[in-house]
Amino acid sequence: MAEPLLEVSGLVVRLGRGRERRSILHGVDLTVGAGESVGLIGETGSGKTTLARTVVGLHRAERGTLRVAGTDVTALRGARLRAFRRSGVVQYVFQDPLRSLDPDLTLGDSVGFGITDPGDRVADALLAVGLDPALAARRPGEVSGGQRQRAAIARAMIARPRLLICDEPVSALDAATRVQVLDLLSGLCAEHGIGLLYISHDLGSVAGITDRLVVLHHGDVVETGTTEQVVTAPCHPYTRLLIGSAPTVDGGGMGRAERAELRAQLAHAPNGKVLT
């Protein structure tokens, strides 16, 4: 595997207060190498976004270790944690760019926000994601959804990150734009040697741009392996259910009876890891 960039081991995260506090992640293990793309897949509520927010220091880990480029994020507090967030080593691309971009700022101001003397860097960042630098003068509401998401990616890339986390980055886009943005992400990460953690419930989108897949179910990693291995020979009932529900992966989808049978198996399946 490529040089370890993100190393997650035995990660336990609990959220909430008092009696409402509950365990979200139960001893998760995950790695992403430099220049490697890893897909984290699972249904809504499986813990995918909680894991991503913990990586960038927005949630505290109760147990386990989490290292980014050699830095133990779980050990950071106060000024050191704020410095880590500002360093740009990890950047986050959100699902909805209309909400993640400030509607009152131009695209150029959003892309260059926090960058000392951005100068030509904003124009270069826009060009790198296939946008005309003239769009820097427009606000998010004045461009298309695909252009907004490209601008959000430019904002992440201008910080020169080592790890890029994309949380459902194409779910709000039409099919044609979705393919363009996926190709863009794959190309940028390969060109710059950036580790990519791609989070989605849509196995069809993830399979096309990832080297490995990690399947998360109710806070547990239930299967992990190369993308080809997991897609062509899934071992866990939950993985088989995800693949069977994604016609873009298997070409035909799965019938209602087959899905019901897998859900019945899943109800009695242990949540331990399955290494393929």
From TrEMBL:
InterPro entries: AAA+_ATPase (IPR003593), ABC_transp_ATP-bind (IPR050319), ABC_transporter-like_ATP-bd (IPR003439), ABC_transporter-like_CS (IPR017871), Oligopep_ABC_C (IPR013563), P-loop_NTPase (IPR027417). One of its GO terms (molecular function) is ATP binding. It comes from the Bacteria. It holds the Pfam family oligo_HPY. Residues 6-243 form the ABC transporter domain. Keywords: ATP-binding, Nucleotide-binding, Transport. GO terms for biological process: peptide transport; transmembrane transport. CDD domains: ABC_NikE_OppD_transporters. Belongs to the ABC transporter superfamily. This is ABC transporter domain-containing protein. It comes from Pseudonocardia sulfidoxydans NBRC 16205.
